[in-house]
Amino acid sequence: MPTKRRIIILASVSSRRKKILKSAHINFKVIYPFIKEKISSKHRISFLVKYNALEKAKAVAKKLKSGIVLGADTLVLFKKKIIGKIYSFKEAEYLLKKMLGKKVEVYTGLCVIDIDNRRYVLDYDKTTVYVSKISLRKIRKFLKYLGSFDKAGGFTIEGLGAILFDKINGSYFNALGLSLRKLALLLEKLDLDISDFIK
Length: 199
Description:
There is one protein chain. By secondary structure, this protein is α/β, with parallel strands linked by helices. It has a single domain, classed as Alpha-Beta Complex (Maf protein), CATH 3.90.950.10. It contains six helices and seven strands. Strands 1, 2, 3, 4, 5, 6 and 7 form a seven-stranded mixed beta sheet that branches. The longest helix is centred in the N-terminal third of the chain and has 17 residues, at 45-61. The protein starts with 7 loop residues before the first strand and ends in a 10-residue tail after the last helix.
């Protein structure tokens, strides 16, 4: 008898994380965590992304009797300032103009909870991106297609966004909000294999 495929419960509203899992043929479903993400200059960004990822995973795990829950959170660090989701075109344009020719660090925290065994693991990854110098006219044109709203830092490095970056150091998928390699390593710490979640 074939082994029943396992499923990951994604505690996130991010369409990019869903897209990444889907592209990797990971068996998953989404349950929204409905928590307020913490952003504070009093804490290191690495602490904040892990804290938010943990709180998201815990919020969903509380609703379930069993399963594997994945929480994730992404924040951007630019000139020592922590930047979360952007909700206006004006703010996205302002930030992008400031970032031109500079480096930006993208941090993503991941938490995996094994409800059945009452265990969890928590970690983060960092990716540094270098923003190209482009004209104001191009910035305004690009912003129409970058899907800046509801994204940490107001940008994405996929699609047209790839033109904005000279160089990327670190995981490309981490910059999008979910490093599959980091996820695989966290699952291993819980004695789980990511291949068991492939459809």
